[in-house]
Design goal:
- The protein is of the alpha+beta class.
- The protein folds into 2 domains: 60 residues, Ribosomal Protein L9, domain 1 (3-Layer(aba) Sandwich), CATH 3.40.5.10; 83 residues, Ribosomal protein L9, C-terminal domain (Ribosomal Protein L9, domain 2), CATH 3.10.430.100.
- The protein has 3 helices and 9 strands.
- Strand 8 and strand 9 form a beta hairpin.
- The longest helix has 34 residues.
- The relative contact order is 0.14.
């Protein structure tokens, strides 16, 4: 029996897919639990409309993420920290500090877990940091660490 999955079902498929399953499995398990619906003409049209809307939504979201990545790359980031001798910081500049500064400069919330920092920054100067904006979209942020006067 052909069914349209309404939710993800383990070992069967993902929501929106049309699958051919055993008649008893569909009648006794999938359909009563609202996990699937029989693959009628109307249901197939609903799936196509849902997929078209999802594609449009994903395209808009991707363009928004790309715009954010361009904005982040164009924004120079300056962080002031206490320094000791020879330009070494007393503490360090962490991904949380960078995320906070980016949130202030860009105006959109940036999560500290999206910032790829191999180790905390402990020296003054210009440092390159990668920001994971979305799946497949990364931005390189130029972080200039300066000494407090």
């Amino acid at each position: 029996m052909k069914v349209v999955l309404r939710q993800d079902v383990a070992n069967v498929g993902r929501a929106g897919e049309v699958k051919d399953v055993a008649d008893g499995y569909a009648r006794n398990f999938l359909i009563p639990r609202k996990l699937a619906a029989p693959a009628t003409k109307t249901e197939l049209q609903n799936v196509q409309a849902y997929q078209a809307a999802a594609t449009k939504r994903n395209a808009a979201l991707e363009s928004e993420h790309r715009a954010l990545a361009e904005q982040v790359e164009a924004t120079p980031l300056v962080i002031h920290a206490r320094t000791g001798e020879q330009g070494r910081l007393y503490g360090s500049v962490t991904s949380a500090d960078i995320a906070e500064a980016l949130t202030k400069s860009v105006g959109k919330p940036i999560d500290k877990r999206d910032i790829e920092l191999d180790e905390p920054i402990r020296t003054t100067g210009d440092h390159k940091v990668h920001l994971h904006v979305a799946t497949g979209i990364t931005a390189t942020v130029s972080v200039d660490v300066q000494a407090n006067e």
